[in-house]
Amino acid sequence: MKIGILSRNAKLFSTKRLVESAKNAGHEVKVIDALHCYMNITSHRPMIHYKGETLEGFDAVIPRIGASITFYGTAVLRQFEMMGVYPLNESVAITRSRDKLRSLQLLSRKGIGLPVTGFAHSPDNIQDVIEIVGGAPLVIKLLEGTQGIGVVLAETKKAAESVIEAFMGLKANIMIQEFVKEAGGADIRCFVIGDKVIAAMMRTAKEGEFRSNLHRGGTAELIKLTPEERSTAVRAANIMGLNVAGVDILRSNHGPVVMEVNSSPGLHGIEDATGKDIAGLIIKFIEKNAKPNKTGTRGKG
Fold first, then answer.
1. Secondary structure (DSSP) of 217-274
2. Looking at the 3D structure of the chain, how many domains does it have?
3. How many CB atoms lie within 10 A of CB 23?
4. CATH number for the domain including 248?
5. What is the pTM of this model?
6. Cα–Cα distance between 81 and 79 in angstroms, integer?
7. Residue 151, domain member (yes or no)
8. Cα 186 from Cα 165, distance rounded (Å)
9. In this predicted structure, what is the pLDDT of residue 168?
10. Which site from 91, 222, 257, 263 is most exposed, i.e. has the minimal number of CB atoms within 10 Å?
């Protein structure tokens, strides 16, 4: 097979592992920087050009699209889909999961456990929104934030009001969530491929920090999931329409609650913590499922 990997940097750990695994399985691989692609939008023969050459003959494409280039990256992926190339994760599913508010609304509609979340546009509503999520302490999140950036824990009502007013003054889109204290600064990253959780790790925040992201200095260890946690993670990925996803879960007093569904989960932390060849499992999934024109969103915006 000929596999394309949409990635801005061929030296990133996850990209290198995918290239390595694909080559070990006997496939041809090309790393493609989406921002260097340009497209020919035509009815009969859509094409993608890249650094002076035409990209063609691909059987599958693995999108590793960073949050900062979601708009253009998914446009390039959509073009691959229009050309009949099998996408590991479809463009519409990635766009859906990147919109934090929309993704929570979709999960809520399907009955997935979530932290109580509030959203408001006007400073006039701040007091009421704080009450909706159960008062302080509470978590304030930028809708565009990633890797724990733009996430603030407000320990008092006064602090919450100040932070929310500051964000609103900057015209930033934010959501307010209950602080799940019983999670103890730890969350669970479930790595889903297809209809299975193939690996899971518990990420624990460093002392004095409440964000458990490994980029923020958190630590990771192997963990055994409960059947309910496993089911929740798989359902959340399926609701987003993602074949491969990192589903972040907190253990709350009322069962597992989903914090986020990540469409480009990193491989470094989870492979280190679990010792599993996750990149190899992704390639095997593609081998089993990749067929021409096999995309549910082909031709749909």
1. T-EEEE-PPPHHHHHHHHHHHHHHT-SEEEEEEEEETTEEEEEEEESS--SHHHHHHH
2. 3
3. 13
4. 3.30.470.20
5. 0.86
6. 5
7. yes
8. 28
9. 82
10. 222
